[in-house]
Amino acid sequence: MAQPIYRVDNRLVHGQIISTWLPHHRLQRFLVASDTVPANTLQMTMFKMCVPPPAEFDALPVHEAAAWLNDKRYGKARTMVLLESVQDAARLFAAGHPFPALNIGNVHHAPGRSPITPAVYLGPEELSLLSDLARRGMRIEVRSLPDEPPLDLAARLTR
């Protein structure tokens, strides 16, 4: 059984995920771990429409997602867990699901954030959370597309 891929991308399910990540990893399931998406009927409908069959789509609040992942309810399906923010990734980890690696693919510019790559901007809070996760042994990479060389952010944070 393959370990899920964990990705922070504030856009969640979108064309780049479907056109590049899905075929590259032959993904069979997407799980959005978010406290807001499961209750948003419009987002749920749009995301379900984006995911082509036979791939499956689920969305759960972060705490429930941790239990779902710990119970390996994805079975043998190659799964991508999508998180809207670094904060959600840290919350998933703290909820009792200590996953080993995190891909950061897209975090929009906002006041107080600095560019890491053209697609990823991080502020002091996010860098602090990521530093803590890196100290706990998590591999953290920045990479927008699966065929790009990854930027090892964990190595930079733990220096």
Describe the protein's architecture and organization.
It is a single chain. The chain has 159 residues and is an alpha/beta fold. It has one domain: Phosphotransferase system, sorbose subfamily IIB component (Fructose Permease), CATH 3.40.35. The chain is 35% helix and 25% strand. The protein has 6 helices and 9 strands. Helix 2 (41-50) links the parallel strand 2 (29-33) and strand 3. Helix 3 (62-70) packs across helix 4 and helix 4 runs parallel beside helix 5 (124-135).
Q: What is this structure, in a nutshell?
A:
The protein has helices at 15-25, 41-50, 62-70, 86-94, 124-135, 153-157, and strands at residues 5-9, 29-33, 56-60, 79-83, 101-106, 114-117, 120-122, 139-142, 151-152.
Biggest sheet overview:
7 strands, mixed
Total E-strand runs: 9
Class inferred from helices and paired strands: alpha/beta
SSE string, helix = H, strand = E? EHEHEHEHEEEHEEH
* The CATH H-level homologous superfamily: Phosphotransferase system, sorbose subfamily IIB component
CATH architecture: 3-Layer(aba) Sandwich
CATH class, anyone?
A: Alpha Beta
pLDDT average, as an integer?
A: 95
Topology:
Blueprint: E1 5-9, H1 15-25, E2 29-33, H2 41-50, E3 56-60, H3 62-70, E4 79-83, H4 86-94, E5 101-106, E6 114-117, E7 120-122, H5 124-135, E8 139-142, E9 151-152, H6 153-157
Parallel strand pairs: 1-4, 1-5, 2-3, 2-4, 5-8
Antiparallel strand pairs: 6-7, 8-9
Helix pairs in contact: 3-4, 4-5
